[in-house]
Amino acid sequence: MQKLFAFAAVLALVLVASPAVAQRDGDLELDFGIKTVVFFYNEVEGIRLSVERGWSLGGEIILWFPQGFGVGAEIEYYTEGEDIDVMPGVEITADYSMMPINLNAYYRFNNSGRGMVPYLGAGLSFVHARAATSTSIVGFDVDFSISDTFTGFNIFGGLEFGYFYIEAQWLFLDVDLGIADMIPTEHSEAGGLSFWIGLRF
């Protein structure tokens, strides 16, 4: 309930802060962007994941209106993995991936196009998630994988510096991939906090 309230509050701020689409002098602006994550924090069952390998990449398109209001879509891809020592002779290699498609509303607090431009936003997220494990038991390997698509939401804020920007994003996403209870890092809440750097042009 608190997550839904946070999402509704930020989305309302974005929509109310820019009075509809009543335009002042100026033109529409279409931005294309690419970004990569520099930090991702995910906590599952109160345990911080120790991610040993992973990367992420994103692309976006945003239509800005003269008063600072924008609408857009972005696609992101996360992958991460870790090795888990369960007991002597038993080792699990786990790999996770998520591909969110976000439909977002944006608001720029300064739309002059010069200097540092802060913005915030929120949107719906449609996420394809996949988990795969390989369990080695005294030399014998057992492989398992499962995937599904889930709906969540994201809130974010950032700063633009010319073509460059930095952004913090929180993805709210609960998933249940049906992984066996013996794996201690099952993703029951696969979202989390991420920090991105990127280019918009």
Q: Averaging pLDDT over every residue, what do you get?
A: 76
Low-confidence blocks of residues? 1-25, 45-52, 179-187
CATH architecture classification:
Beta Barrel
- The structural domain count equals 1
Order of strands in the sheet with most strands: 1-4-5-6-7-8-9-10
Spatial extent as radius of gyration: 20 Å
Oligomer: single chain
CATH class label? Mainly Beta
Explain how this protein is built.
It is a single chain. This protein is mostly beta strands and 201 residues long. It has a single domain (2-18, 31-200), classed as Porin (Beta Barrel), CATH 2.40.160.20. It contains one helix and ten strands, in the order αββββββββββ. A hairpin with a 2-residue loop joins strand 5 and strand 6. The chain is elongated.
Please outline the helices and strands.
Elements: H1 2-17, E1 29-41, E2 43-44, E3 47-48, E4 53-64, E5 69-87, E6 90-108, E7 116-137, E8 140-161, E9 164-172, E10 192-200
Antiparallel strand pairs: 1-4, 1-10, 2-3, 4-5, 5-6, 6-7, 7-8, 8-9, 9-10
Summarize it.
Helix content is 8%, strand content 64%. It is elongated.
Give descriptors for this structure.
Porin, elongated, mainly beta, 201 residues, eight-stranded antiparallel β-barrel, two-stranded antiparallel ribbon
